Amino acid sequence: MDGYRLVFVGGMGRSGSTLIERLLGELPGFCSVGEVVHLWRRGVLENELCGCGLPFLECGFWGEVGERAFGGWNRLDMARVLGLKESVDRTRFLPALLNGGCEDGTVGARSSRYTELYHRLYSAVAEVDGARVVVDASKHASLAACLRRRYGTRMRLLHVVRDPRAVAYSWAKRVARPDASPTSGEQEMARYSTPRAAVQWMAQNASLDALARRGVPTLRVRYEDFVADPAGEFGRVAEFVGHPAPSLFDGTEARLSVGHALSGNPMRFRSGPVDVRADHGWREGLAPWRRHLVEALTTPLRVRYGY
């Protein structure tokens, strides 16, 4: 893998993955880069804010990464990159990506070209940062499936799950995106209806389970377990990704450095002490009919995961 290892943080959004990714970035030799899947549009085209607070194209870290990976961001044909992304990194392509139906077909060829972009990017990140492990919290199962075709068992998958009722409640909220530029097409974080959130929760988690069954080294982390015992659960995560280390926590508090994570939860802008606490607002805020609908649509995996 050209001197670096890859940790991919997968799962349905609003499950607490941003915090875990940020904490991994505090380990020696680890560089967390946020949701790289959105770098092409939100970073290169729309110049949204990096986790360090600077616009992407003004950030020295990402500027150097772009030079080493591609000879500069302006050398990329972004229409081609985004077209390639749309042609393979979508939920509808997961059956072919997971089941080997594209080994000699066009989906397989597109996947190879698509993941070459990520390989060049990750290699440059490792070189610029001096990291031996790159952490990508893109979450999307379709991207994880593409990367599995390139890296196989050399990729470590952290599968983060949360109670689907809490996830559906979170996806219904209106939340401004502080990283959005004035020209960004997304001034607020995406919102899903209750049934769509439930169906997406099932699709994403089932697909990540399928990757584990196909041999990708995987550790499942439940949000509820993490907030109940952050030091213990993070120790388990660190051991899985190859860095058993003293806990970053003092009780339930950890300290975060300024980083260069892209996109995702606004907490990526946080630095300094952060106290890990459970958010159970959904128990009061989720209407009973919505709760019952989510429970009905997610029963198989919800029960399997202990919810």
What is the compact description of this entry?
With 307 residues, the chain is α/β, with parallel strands linked by helices. It has helices at residues 17-24, 39-45, 60-70, 78-88, 94-99, 106-129, 141-151, 164-171, 194-213, 223-228, 230-240, 282-285, 288-304, and strands spanning 5-10, 30-32, 133-139, 155-161, 218-222, 253-256, 272-275. Helix content is 47%, strand content 12%.
Strand content: 5-15%
| First-last Cα distance | 38 Å
Q: If you compute it from the alpha carbons, what radius of gyration comes out, rounded to the nearest whole angstrom?
A: 19 Å
Q: Structural class, from secondary structure content?
A: alpha/beta
At the third CATH level, what is the topology name?
Rossmann fold
What is the correct CATH architecture? Answer: 3-Layer(aba) Sandwich
Q: What number is the mean pLDDT?
A: 91
Tally of contiguous helical segments = 13
Unreliable parts = none
Strand order of the largest sheet: 2-3-1-4-5
The count of DSSP E runs of length 2 or more, i.e. the number of strands, is 7
Q: Please estimate the helix content.
A: 40-55%
What is the general shape?
Answer: globular
* Whole-number tally of structural domains: 1
The ordered H/E elements are: EHEHHHHHEHEHHEHHEEHH
CATH uppermost class:
Alpha Beta
